[in-house]
């Protein structure tokens, strides 16, 4: 059975929106923390938004469409070894790319979560700073700063991999994460398209609303944290 389409929908709209929204948050958080001063308020906003996005993606990896689910693309060392030896991957993330996805979700998730408890000892603190001891906050602040370099390193590797696949393997990865479509010739024969329509969008909207409510609730604890130290 052969694909009878020029392109196949692999990445659903919510997954694509998550990807680019996270890019905006990472860039925004990095720029705002380097500018400092009053821009630190924006750093906290970007960080909390990134936390919500990571929570959404973790849940979407369970209830989302086929290619967005972790069960579809997270594989063991044997699958990675076969891919490195030249085995054709299934549609979606290849085994090596899956490791990159999980690593980025882990380190960015840690950065966003640890930021809730950090302080710059001047004028900015995370929403949950007042719920932990000064020692715990100091430790998390140190890890938060060190993890920034881990994120930079992983993003650099990610961009290098995208460039290699684009220039050497002629895979249109950037276009795919924008349009959601992958060239049929780059997929195994008979690859079914991902679900991507009103039902999927409504599911994502409801999930996003719940996650947004959770993050907003976390932000309300900032006042309680300040009062506990008064």
UniProtKB/TrEMBL annotation:
The keyword Transmembrane helix applies. It is a multi-pass membrane protein. Residues 11-180 form the Cytochrome b561 bacterial/Ni-hydrogenase domain. It is found in: Cell membrane. InterPro entries: Cyt_b561_bac/Ni-Hgenase, Di-haem_cyt_TM, Hydrogenase_cytochrome. Pfam families: Ni_hydr_CYTB. The keyword Zinc-finger does not apply. It comes from the Bacteria. Keywords: Cell membrane, Membrane, Transmembrane, Transmembrane helix. The chain crosses the membrane at residues 17-35, 42-60, 96-117, 149-168, 198-218. This is Cytochrome b/b6 domain-containing protein. It comes from Achromobacter seleniivolatilans. The lineage of its organism: Bacteria, Pseudomonadati, Pseudomonadota, Betaproteobacteria, Burkholderiales.
């Amino acid at each position: 059975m052969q694909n009878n389409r020029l392109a196949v929908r692999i990445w659903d709209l919510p997954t694509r929106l998550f990807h680019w929204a996270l890019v905006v948050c990472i860039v925004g958080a990095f720029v705002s923390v380097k500018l400092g001063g009053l821009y630190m308020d924006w750093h906290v906003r970007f960080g909390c938004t990134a936390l919500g996005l990571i929570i959404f993606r973790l849940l979407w990896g369970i209830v989302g469409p086929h290619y967005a689910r972790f069960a579809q693309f997270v594989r063991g060392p044997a699958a990675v070894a076969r891919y490195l030896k030249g085995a054709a991957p299934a549609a979606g993330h290849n085994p090596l790319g899956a490791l990159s996805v999980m690593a980025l979700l882990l380190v960015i998730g840690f950065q966003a979560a640890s930021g809730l408890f950090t302080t710059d000892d001047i004028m900015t603190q995370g929403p949950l700073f007042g719920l932990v001891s000064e020692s715990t906050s100091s430790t998390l602040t140190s890890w938060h700063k060190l993890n920034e370099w881990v994120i930079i390193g992983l993003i650099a590797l990610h961009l290098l991999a995208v460039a290699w696949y684009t220039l050497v393997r002629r895979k249109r990865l950037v276009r795919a994460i924008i349009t959601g479509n992958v060239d049929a010739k780059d997929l195994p024969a008979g690859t079914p398209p991902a679900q991507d329509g009103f039902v999927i969008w409504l599911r994502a909207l409801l999930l996003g609303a719940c996650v947004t409510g959770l993050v907003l609730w976390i932000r309300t604890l900032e006042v309680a944290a300040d009062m506990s130290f008064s």
